[in-house]
Model the fold of this input.
Amino acid sequence: MDLLERYLAEVRRNLPSREADDIIAELRDVLLERAEEQEEATGKVDWNSLLQEFGHPLVIAVRYRKQQWLIGPELYPFYLHFLKVIVTIVAAVTTGIAIVRGMLWGTDAGQIATSYLGSLWWGIASAIGSVTIVFAILERFGGSSVKECRRWKPQELPEPDSDRPNPYQSIFEVTFGALVLLWWLGVFATPQLGGNFRLVAAPVWQVVFWPVAALMTSQLIFNLVRWLRPRWKIARGLLGTVNLLAVLIIAAVVFRAGRWILVLPKGADASEVASLQSSLDLSFRIAIIVIVVAFTLNIAAALWRMVRSSAPRRSSNGGPSSARA
Done:
């Protein structure tokens, strides 16, 4: 797919869905007309300079929306895009912390809900205020920063059929991965069930503690690269392959242990403890298999889509398609 199609696809992602087809058709005609004029004048078409001069996809898309001047016509699209991302992250983190607090400390539901709504309100309000202040300062004093926004590179636009997830899916993946990593490192305590027994992690988890932490960190980096740098295909391919191999090796070590949670009695009779231990062993055995299969299929599918999108496209006559950009 040539540079024009990647540009139009990026503009489409930020357009109102009802008007996207008409707007894209109009932009395509305008850009093709400019390309013909440039070819007549210079003998060739330089899509890179033509699209860069035409404007950033976010700037072009926002011109077709009603609200434009909260910060300024040039910085506003970046402000709005950045604000959505930050607010979503704040909401996701606040919600995750509230869920963890409710699970671990089991306080009153009304108290948890009140605390959560208050934290969510102040978190979002603080995020909006902070982002607005930063962009207002950039608008007034950040001349060089505004120029950097203009000097974007069309070559870094993702392919229209890229496997890049939408921003909200990426935010969820990154936030969830960060919370799980923090829990694994001991920032969040593991809850203990009450009753006549106590659950303790089996020794195998001490053996794989740091490899699992490294794997979680690597997967977090993989999700960040897929979100923020979708055209870094070599880095994504290497990270995905390393993560897949690491999962298989760690899963093999963990699976061979045969026992992953130990049930220690605190007054419970032996038959009750043995029944619970057997149920946990079976549940963990099934869970490990399901997690490994799901992770393997997910990474393999991402690598396959990346390889397929990198392969040279062929035209209808069987030969390689000629790129116009």
Summary: Strands lie at 197-201, 261-265. Residues 314-319, 321-325 have pLDDT under 50 and may be disordered. The CA atoms of residues 316 and 322 lie 11 Å apart. The first helix runs from residue 3 to 12.
